[in-house]
Structures are given as structure tokens and as C-alpha cells.
Task: inverse folding
């Protein structure tokens, strides 16, 4: 067996121990804003208001990243993407992060060369129908026409469900949620299937939401989350810990309104680390140590983001369910800020 020379061995050690080069961070800082890919419009998750300002659950993830990088949550440019265009748009570098109700799957993570940085919404695929259809279960949809967005996991899930139940359907392919909603409301399809959160958003935009029913079956796991390109671990860490910061902030009872008061009256070391009062955590990936403070102060904790965009007091009226903190019986759980 050949023995490596000492110089060669040292070179290998140096290569594997050298810090990752944060190319995306450098590009973002030089540009002056984060480029974020979102949907073409989904109420509660990503949609422009009457003044053209983007708002929503996914939008706030991107605003948190901007707050972390620049100390200013407004420094974001939003690019609309469809189910088909979202991955090429991210891969090409047109956007820095994709925050677009995208399901974390093996092939997307591994084969497409992306990195999912966490789950910001636990969801599942459902079925929305007009109450007048007189159907109480998805197993009664034999022969139904189904609006479905192309380029999504819902296509495969739908085929699997109907096959397993020995029933048939007619597929009505659509590109966007707006197109699906228009077809459903016009009666050009009997059913719309997508993530249950998206169905709630669709029903909320009907003239009379009570005329529409979400069937009881949830036929899949849809862990939705932001993603970045493989290979730039520093940028992936920044996006990941922007989301984690909001999750930890809720667990610790920190909100955009009480943050300064809590800091003045609290002795929790993790809160001090999270907000930059102690330690050099921001410096570890090239940011200001108060990046967590800026996220919480300007965007809010996870619970604030959820409630103002999709919660029970919004048109979507979504309960926290699985998206509650682990301390309240939900699945939201962040690694420690240490």
C-alpha cells in the first residue's frame, strides 16, 4: 500500500477543514437584496396586496432572511414561479431561495441537487368540492374531473389514491392555483386537489366559502419548506437558522412587540445567544451577531407569522394542528441555539 506523503496528507486535511465559501451570501450582499422565488399567488402564503406588496406565510420566510443578512426585512425581490418553472429558476441562479409551498421529497433533495433547509408547514393533500356535488368521501369520486397543477407531487399522489381505491378520474391539468380556482368555480372540473392549506386559500376566495367542502381524506404527507441550491453550505445555514430563529422565539415567548422588554427582564442564556446579546453566533456565517434580534423584531416569531397570514382570524381560518410547537403537542422543533 502506498503511503501518502506528509505534504499531501496536510493538503487533504486543509481541504476538508477549510470553511465553506459563502458565494451566494457574497452575491446577495453585493446586490443589496435577496431574490426569493414564490408562487404566482396563493392567499395567505404568497400574494401581492392592492398596493403590490407581497404578503404571506412563505413571503415572511424570505423577509426573515433579509432581516438576518441586511438588518432590513424589506430588502427582498420576489419572483413568481409555477410548479414547472420553480426548480429551473432556482437551479439557474435567478433566485437565491425558493419559498413556495414545495414538498420535501427524496428525489428533489438528492437527484435535483437542492437542499431543503427545514419544514415551515406540515401539510397533506386533500380534495375541495362544491357542496352541491353531494359527495362525503373522496372514495365516492369515481369518474370525477379533477383539476391538478402539473409538475407537482399531487399528480402522483392522486394517481396512487384512485388506483388503490379502484376508481377512475379525468385529469384537468392547470399551471397555477389561479387557473385551478377559475376552473373549479366555473364548473369545468368537479374537484380540485392540492395541499389542504392551498385548498383553504382557494375556498376563502369564493363568493360564498360555505358552498365549498374540504373532504375528510388527507392522502399524503406534504412537508413544505424553503430550499436552496446544493453546494453552498453557508447560505443554506443562513436560511435554515432564519427559520429556526422564528421557531425558537415562539418557544421562548419572544414576539416582535415584547422583545426588548423580555431582553431587559430575562436571564435565559439561550435568549441572549439568539438575539446576539451574548456570543459570536452571527459571525460564524458572516452576519451581524444580532441577526436573530432583527428577525424577531421585524418579522416576528413563527406563531405571529402563522396567525397573521393563515390563522383562525384570517380568511383561511387554519388551526395550528401539527404546526404547533412541540411544547404544545405539535411538530415544530428547532435544534438548540448553542
Result:
Amino acid at each position: 500500500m502506498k503511503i501518502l506523503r506528509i505534504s499531501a496528507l496536510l493538503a487533504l486535511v486543509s481541504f476538508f477543514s477549510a470553511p465553506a465559501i459563502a458565494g451566494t451570501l457574497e452575491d446577495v450582499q453585493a446586490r443589496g437584496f435577496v431574490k426569493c422565488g414564490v408562487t404566482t399567488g396563493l392567499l395567505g402564503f404568497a400574494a401581492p396586496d392592492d398596493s403590490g406588496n407581497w404578503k404571506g406565510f412563505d413571503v415572511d420566510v424570505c423577509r426573515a432572511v433579509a432581516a438576518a443578512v441586511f438588518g432590513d426585512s424589506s430588502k427582498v425581490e420576489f419572483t413568481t414561479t409555477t410548479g414547472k418553472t420553480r426548480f429551473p429558476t432556482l437551479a439557474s441562479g435567478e433566485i437565491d431561495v425558493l419559498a413556495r409551498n414545495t414538498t420535501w421529497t427524496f428525489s428533489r433533495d438528492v437527484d435535483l441537487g437542492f437542499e431543503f433547509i427545514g419544514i415551515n408547514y406540515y401539510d397533506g393533500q386533500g380534495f375541495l368540492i362544491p357542496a352541491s356535488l353531494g359527495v362525503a368521501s373522496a372514495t365516492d369520486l369515481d369518474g370525477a374531473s379533477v383539476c391538478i397543477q402539473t409538475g407537482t407531487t399531487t399528480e402522483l399522489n392522486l394517481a396512487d389514491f384512485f388506483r388503490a381505491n379502484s376508481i377512475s378520474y379525468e385529469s384537468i391539468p392547470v399551471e397555477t392555483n389561479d387557473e385551478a380556482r377559475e376552473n373549479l368555480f366555473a364548473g369545468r372540473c368537479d374537484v380540485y386537489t392540492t395541499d389542504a392549506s392551498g385548498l383553504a386559500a382557494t375556498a376563502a376566495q369564493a363568493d360564498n366559502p360555505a358552498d365549498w367542502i374540504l373532504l375528510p381524506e388527507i392522502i399524503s404527507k406534504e412537508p413544505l419548506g424553503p430550499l436552496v441550491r446544493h453546494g453552498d453550505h453557508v447560505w443554506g445555514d443562513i436560511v435554515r437558522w432564519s427559520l429556526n430563529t422564528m421557531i425558537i422565539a415562539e418557544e421562548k415567548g419572544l414576539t416582535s412587540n415584547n422583545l426588548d422588554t423580555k431582553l431587559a427582564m430575562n436571564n435565559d442564556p439561550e435568549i441572549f445567544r439568539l438575539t446576539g446579546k451574548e456570543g459570536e453566533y452571527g459571525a460564524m456565517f458572516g452576519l451581524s451577531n444580532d441577526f436573530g434580534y432583527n428577525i424577531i423584531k421585524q418579522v416576528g416569531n413563527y406563531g405571529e407569522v402563522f396567525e397573521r397570514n393563515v390563522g383562525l382570524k384570517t380568511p383561511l381560518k387554519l388551526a395550528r394542528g401539527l404546526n404547533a410547537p412541540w411544547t404544545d403537542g405539535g411538530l415544530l422543533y428547532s435544534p438548540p441555539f448553542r
Observations:
- Confidence is low (pLDDT under 50) at residues 1-22.
- The two ends are 43 Å apart (CA to CA).
- The chain has two domains: 20-122+224-328, 125-220.
